[in-house]
Amino acid sequence: MSAETIQKQDEAFGFEAHHLMLSVRLKSGAVYNFAYGYLIETRLDGATLTLDFISREVHITGRNLMPLSQYLQGHRLGWVQEQGKRFDVGKTDDTYISQILIVNKEN
């Protein structure tokens, strides 16, 4: 991933040719990296995109999440990040991520 891609804090996600891991960035500054090899299923249901990994679920809430779902299918999504309200300019065709919740699965 290029330094230019990493620096763009106003964007909801970054993509390139192919990735081995997905980096999930929270507003708190915490960063989680998930291996695509452990991704079992993705579900897009309205304003929530759920990523089902072996030991955790990642719930991404926002607007226009279909591009993320499509990039995930080809392991092309390198990172996603929560965005503050200042980045929600109200354009319905722009992707906006309001919340990311990471949940441990029960064994």
Produce the secondary structure layout.
Elements: H1 3-7, E1 13-15, E2 21-25, E3 31-35, E4 39-45, E5 48-53, E6 56-63, H2 66-73, E7 77-81, E8 96-104
Parallel strand pairs: 2-7
Antiparallel strand pairs: 1-7, 2-3, 4-5, 5-6, 6-8
Q: How is this structure best described in words?
A:
There is one protein chain. The longest helix is centred in the middle third of the chain and has 8 residues, at 66-73. This protein has one domain. The protein has helices at residues 3-7, 66-73; strands at residues 13-15, 21-25, 31-35, 39-45, 48-53, 56-63, 77-81, 96-104. The chain is mainly beta. It has a 4-stranded mixed sheet with strand order 1-7-2-3. A hairpin with a 2-residue loop joins β5 and β6. Helices cover 12% and strands 45% of the residues.
List keywords for this structure.
8 strands; 107 residues; mainly beta; four-stranded antiparallel beta sheet
